[in-house]
Amino acid sequence: xxxxxxxxxxxxxxxxxxxxxxxxxxxxxxxxxxxxxxxxxxxxxxxxxxxxxxxxxxxxxxxxxxxxxxxxxxxxxxxxxxxxxxxxxxxxxx
Length: 94
Known about the structure:
The relative contact order is 0.16. Helix 1 packs antiparallel against helix 2 (14-30), helix 1 runs parallel beside helix 3 (35-44) and helix 3 packs antiparallel against helix 4 (48-61). The protein is mainly alpha-helical. The chain has 5 helices and no strands.
């Protein structure tokens, strides 16, 4: 679902992208939502700080989906952020 927010954003459907991210945040309060999915969705909404916070959380808990960070286009927006580069280095993905 996090990648859906990015897809909406790429299609110029900002309201749908925002709604998807907000739904994920709402769900995360009631059930487990991978921080990686939240990072994708935040990145799709150009919310860099929130995306990095979710990626840092994913790193801290050892979320296995974080391996996608190096290769999936969903994360390409974040690759130039030094905070994200640090996460990749700490995970051994660089």
